[in-house]
Amino acid sequence: MLVCGINLSGSDAIFVLLSGENTSFEHIELNTCKITLGNSDDSQDLRAFQNTIYAFFREHPIDVIVIKKKGKGMYAGGPSVYKM
Description:
Elements: E1 2-9, E2 12-21, E3 24-28, E4 34-36, H1 43-59, E5 64-67, H2 79-83
Parallel strand pairs: 1-5
Antiparallel strand pairs: 1-2, 2-3, 2-4
């Protein structure tokens, strides 16, 4: 099973791939482990960000996607995180 973990932080989506079963997983090195959203107010930048993520998912046959829970209070992300 191939698991993709995603952390949305600021204007970055940080990816981690793990391969394995149940409690035994192995980290997979990636060429692209961070995708950055340019100007979050520009629809072309949002579309480019979306297309880059789609290309990443097409490149890797991922079975499960896990997105880290958004922080609250002092650790809360900005409005860009909601757009991502």
